[in-house]
Amino acid sequence: MYKQEIKVMDCTVRDGGLMNKWQFSDNFVRGVYNACVEAGIDYMEIGYLSSEKAFDRSVYGPWKFCLQKDLERIVGKNETNLKLSAMADIGRIELDDIPMAADSALDMIRVACYVHQVDKAVALAHHCMDKGYEVCINLMAVSTVNEHELDEALKDIAASRVKTFYAVDSYGSMYVESIQHLVRKYINALPGKEIGIHAHNNMQMAMSNTYTAIMEGCTMLDATLMGLGRGAGNCPIEILIAFLKNPKYRLLPLLQVIQDYVHPMQSQIDWGYHIPYLISGALNAHPRRSLEWMDSDKKNDFVTFMKEMHDNEILE
Amino acid sequence: MYKQEIKVMDCTVRDGGLMNKWQFSDNFVRGVYNACVEAGIDYMEIGYLSSEKAFDRSVYGPWKFCLQKDLERIVGKNETNLKLSAMADIGRIELDDIPMAADSALDMIRVACYVHQVDKAVALAHHCMDKGYEVCINLMAVSTVNEHELDEALKDIAASRVKTFYAVDSYGSMYVESIQHLVRKYINALPGKEIGIHAHNNMQMAMSNTYTAIMEGCTMLDATLMGLGRGAGNCPIEILIAFLKNPKYRLLPLLQVIQDYVHPMQSQIDWGYHIPYLISGALNAHPRRSLEWMDSDKKNDFVTFMKEMHDNEILE
């Protein structure tokens, strides 16, 4: 399945950091970086750009902030073909905290927003473009957005200078047909722009939804090593690369870093398919409650969680 | 997604038993049975019909044989709407060992065969029908069968009295398009017959492939609790039931038995997505070597396994 225009973005550190407040060892992050370089991955999202006023550095690790000194410690001048990305949430970064691209190891900034923040996201994206970065906008939690609001948001994106826009299944609640519908809608509304896919695995559909998105014309593909990411995690990059069979990618360096760093992390972080995540995904609910449940001593009481979620959903 | 004709078959004990030689406690099997009854599941495959001459009873548990006395201990007279099934492998059961359906708690016998055994499978299936059973034929490892051989096999099935025929992704090596192609082929070749799907999860495609099969017209759906099954396991029945939203099914009894019996089994049986299973699936190879690897002290040396498998595949 060879499509020359496909680009793969590893989000292991950025999305996985949601599970450990980005408290990864330098060896872990360097291992992921080196593996991505050797495997021919196109982009690595190494963390978030956040204001130190918004988050406490004694609680959050360096990849919540992605300061240049931390980046340099891992990637030096990054004289490789791997591009580096960081995500910025609306309202959690101040414009003056974003360095010029020429002074940063970052190549891309991805602006994450909810549907009511699209105008702010476009403004931030334009600001980043003016500083020399590639940009994307990732519209989160789209499974809860009504069609009319989404159409309005797409008009704003279409009118912007932003070249790449992401279909994001934040809640892991989408199946083949909902992905097809969404990607077709994005492609029709955004002629000339590139569409990306970011999937979550609550219903074990992350790889399949990425596959569907490719078939529908998505060319920017998010994935993480062993699916490491929030809650049920993401599309596993090793499955994606094995599927793509694209000569520019190599599977073995990914298996090596999984073996050395990611698989052992399972003893510290309990990401992946678990029943509470299935329940929140199937109910199209934010994973917040399932994450709290998994952090509690009731984590294996699936029946009570289902009943509580069901009652909450009906009341909401 | 309501299709009245859909029937779900729980294969937890039968396929899961491949991982522990069917050494399940009676409480486990009874728990699965009761949950299937309460959840409105249509069929439960409780094990294999095998000759005691072919397998040692001191090694293999009762569900390798499914004797009437063992069945009765769990299900009594099974005065429920749940039908019971057992699988029979060609060459591992003698005709005289199969009781009349009227004398058995079993309602269905599913004949599993490879493509060169289709004639024998039809003969065994007809024998079982004449004894009063419902039957299916499950053609295994179809991902390795060439198109011409498959066409010949389908002619034999079409000419038989067998009403149900299964698409079986034994190696977990199929993606959306291969499932679509296969199911369309089966439906076209077998007018008036029912088509089933049995998926494996090596590439985290089992739920998705089951979904695709439904969309293409499959109506008999195999699944297991938490995907418990050989190697990477099967389509998780709790995800399937959550997706189907069919009023005849209930999710909560399934979550209860998962909580009480299946999830705790994870400390004894290491089924589910693991890198060695991904590798064998992606290479369209029998899971034998990946199962051996997972049973060895090298189980987490993914790189060596990949290299060995790759060398083997090239040499074969």
From TrEMBL, chains A, B:
<dbReference type="GO" id="GO:0003852">
    <property type="term" value="F:2-isopropylmalate synthase activity"/>
</dbReference>
<feature type="domain" description="Pyruvate carboxyltransferase">
    <location>
        <begin position="6"/>
        <end position="259"/>
    </location>
</feature>
<keyword id="KW-0808">Transferase</keyword>
<dbReference type="GO" id="GO:0009098">
    <property type="term" value="P:L-leucine biosynthetic process"/>
</dbReference>
<dbReference type="InterPro" id="IPR050073">
    <property type="entry name" value="2-IPM_HCS-like"/>
</dbReference>
<dbReference type="Pfam" id="PF00682">
    <property type="entry name" value="HMGL-like"/>
</dbReference>
<dbReference type="InterPro" id="IPR000891">
    <property type="entry name" value="PYR_CT"/>
</dbReference>
<keyword id="KW-0670">Pyruvate</keyword>
<keyword id="KW-0464">Manganese</keyword>
<protein>
    <submittedName>
        <fullName>Pyruvate carboxyltransferase</fullName>
    </submittedName>
</protein>
<dbReference type="InterPro" id="IPR013785">
    <property type="entry name" value="Aldolase_TIM"/>
</dbReference>
